[in-house]
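Troubleshooting log. The previous run stalled partway through. Resubmitting the same four chains, unchanged.
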Amino acid sequence: MPDRSGRGDRRAVPTSARATIYDIAAEAGVSSATVSRTFGAPAKVRPDTRRRVLDVAARLGYRANPLARALPSGRTSTLALVVPAITNPHFFDIITGAEQRAVEAGFTLVLANTGQSDLSEAAAIERLEPMVDGVMLASSRLDDDRIARFADRTNLALCNRQAGRIPSVTTDQVNGIEQVVGHLHSLGHRRIGLLGGPETSWAGRLRRRAVVAAGGRLGVTVQLLGPFNPIVAGGQSAADAAIGAGVTAVLAHNDLLAIGVLRRLADRGVHVPGEMSVVGFDDIFGADFCVPALTTVAAPSHELGRTAVDLVLASVAGQPVPASTVLPAHLTVRESTGPAPDSRTAPGQSRWRTQSAQTLPPGSR
Amino acid sequence: MPDRSGRGDRRAVPTSARATIYDIAAEAGVSSATVSRTFGAPAKVRPDTRRRVLDVAARLGYRANPLARALPSGRTSTLALVVPAITNPHFFDIITGAEQRAVEAGFTLVLANTGQSDLSEAAAIERLEPMVDGVMLASSRLDDDRIARFADRTNLALCNRQAGRIPSVTTDQVNGIEQVVGHLHSLGHRRIGLLGGPETSWAGRLRRRAVVAAGGRLGVTVQLLGPFNPIVAGGQSAADAAIGAGVTAVLAHNDLLAIGVLRRLADRGVHVPGEMSVVGFDDIFGADFCVPALTTVAAPSHELGRTAVDLVLASVAGQPVPASTVLPAHLTVRESTGPAPDSRTAPGQSRWRTQSAQTLPPGSR
DNA sequence: TTGAAAGCGCTAACAC
DNA sequence: GTGTTAGCGCTTTCAA
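Second attempt completed without errors. Output:
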């Protein structure tokens, strides 16, 4: 004798057992299969019986149990988003975009924060993978092989990362870099620094190559500095390194780091952009109201999140998935970049103190 | 004839069917129940058989199917966090805290963003509730009755909100307000404005009462302004209203609004804190590097998230849950508050221009 | 169009 | 300790 009410005493509260398709079937005088079809494939049910079932269901306050539904079908209508650092506003926007798109498509978003470690990232995927229909990996720190292996057994999409032929959505880092270096070059900078982030950052590696290439083309010397922790606190050593390197402009791994650099520079009495220009990446919340407002390569973060979801959704639906979507980046010039000190290439604009950063003894202010 | 491999062609990829407890049972020469016990209640299995099962499981790469596990047991090891505005950094911190605690406890966090509307909030709960063991509601816009009804059928905890006897974690708004009003009073302010947020905000209502009370006690006149949209953009009209009201200091509903007020005030040429002091709530990312740096009532956001999870975890475990946890708020004084214009109560500190805000014609700069 | 029945992978009595 | 046996609530052939 099936006990369909033995659930109430395990959970904290539920007293009234929830209605199942069997309850509805009994009430409506149909089989449970018909009830199931009414919700899963309404077209296969004659309109009037469908009506009847729906009425009873409404009266009983029926709501399908997603777990029970997922077990035989294998589809959970849930997607997982794995991010390395939920504290970075850039990921906030990605999350928001992903969440919106997921909900639109009738999916639920599960979030996993992995804290920059590839171990916990793998663990998170491992844990989530069996309970979701697909997973989006943002700025994954995993190596290509590992990613490929995950892609082998689940619907995967990459965000801010490319790996083999796995569906991905990224911003056009190369073009973004070209815009920045061009911008800086036109302001008279001939010696710039790249403040690197984690070595495992795919975008970081890509940018490094792009900066060197663009610099070579334009006659701009590029100093590779770092790696630095890509958070505000990391700006301290990054700024010090920049000063030590004698560059007139720096490209920070991301806006968080750039903001940290701005603060350290202010503490050390180095004027931005008078003595040093600073550029970030992402255009996060706060980039427009820090002081000076940050010039940055804006990433379409929201769109990144949405697109990543679209990618795995297509894969879930068995549709062909474009291997790689590249979204445009665009340079947002604000107040943290200006003519290079002593610049003669931007005549009439060198209104800044001309004491150049190079000449500052390391610890001076 | 059970088909234990008919799963591969429905999903996009999985070629090798995943091992089940039956596969292990067969290999290890035990029953499926023993395998189940090995993982669910290892103490009930003799050490050597346990070993054998574990070995086979490892060899087969067995990982339990959480869905199948959840169906009979009714426990999904998943928690849902419902937030009104994921774009508010305050909630990021809450999310981070909640996520960490959840993972520590072996739970997965599902996130739902409801966009300030009580309709979508209810819908989100409705949707998530059947697939999670409990839900945390942050800054819920729902009325007490509705919340009580949800609490009736699921393990619920409130964050930034109190309602009846439902477990909740909040910050001590009243004390926070007292600190702010005291701070402002000691700086010579005698006429302050409260820039209200959504009418449905529980914290907002609480603060309103507290401000009026504290003001009355200290002889500070309080102007209730608003409601305003609690985002940066809302700061525009809020700032204008503050200027129009002739107050010398304002308490913004949250930091987002306060930052917007700061910007608008700067645009209109009103000096902060010289002509107007501004206080926010939450102490979000950016509050320390906006200009002037924001004086704010810091909420232990991270802790809020953690505690909310603890609350529902206790409830899930059937343990007694404290009805209401109140975390201390503390005033973080930065640069956006200073002596009131024309103040004589803070002698020697009124070094600011004394043109008071009141005298500014509405549209002037 | 509808129903019967066999699972989905796992848990949890209940026996042995 | 371990095995047997019912389910959990739903989907999905296969017949009728």
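Takeaways: The longest strand of chain B covers residues 78-83. Chain B is about 40% helix and 15% strand.
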